[in-house]
Amino acid sequence: MFLSRTPVLPTPEQALRGRPEPEFSVPERHTVLGNPLLGPYPEGLEVADFALGCFWGAERKFWQTEGVWTTLVGYQGGYTPNPAYEEVCSGLTGHTEVVRVVFDPSKVSYETLLKLFWESHDPTQGFRQGNDVGTQYRSAIYTHSPAQADRAEASREAYQKVLTGSGYGEITTHVLPADETRPFYPAEAYHQQYLDKNPAGYCGIGGTGLSCPIGVAKAEG
């Protein structure tokens, strides 16, 4: 099943068992922004999790955004605890490649991050992004509050109208809570800020060329 040309998510029973603790450590600070990668984060900052294909190029998109305090890449939405990169790429953990974005909402809004998310990839491709094929490349938003969930859903509906008008299919992006059933596991050290360390490295990120309307999400309250 997992070696077929059409990727299939594993069931919890099929997933790799994983391990109680990670096999590797994560660097203390961001190589570009200089801030700590792991929490706790300063008061007033918020966390957002986005999956939009290969996390190398996706992370750079976000760290280049004003108001973003730190970013790190990892794995989320699967079943295997503390997975390794090779395990995720096998399709046997169920995880996505995710960018965790820690941002200052007084400087950049969650809607602005959503706009960047939608415009940086093709959210209609299912288990792939361009030439990258696999369940780990699926599009997803993992939300950290009801307000984030409302805004993510509203932006998906708005962007669907834009895509449909240009001949694209249905958005396959999942919007799910980043709760205890979907923990974020940081990726190995060499993946963190990969394109800063390897400026000529692979970047598979590419959007549809269509603008996502912002200001469409519901206000809090």
From TrEMBL:
Gene3D superfamilies noted in UniProt: Peptide methionine sulphoxide reductase MsrA
GO cellular component: cytoplasm
SUPFAM superfamilies per the UniProt record, alphabetical: Peptide methionine sulfoxide reductase
GO molecular function: peptide-methionine (S)-S-oxide reductase activity
Keyword ATP-binding carried by entry: no
Record field: catalytic activity: [thioredoxin]-disulfide + L-methionine + H2O = L-methionine (S)-S-oxide + [thioredoxin]-dithiol; L-methionyl-[protein] + [thioredoxin]-disulfide + H2O = L-methionyl-(S)-S-oxide-[protein] + [thioredoxin]-dithiol
Membership in a protein family: Belongs to the MsrA Met sulfoxide reductase family.
Name of the featured protein: Peptide methionine sulfoxide reductase MsrA
Organism ancestry: Bacteria, Bacillati, Actinomycetota, Actinomycetes, Kitasatosporales
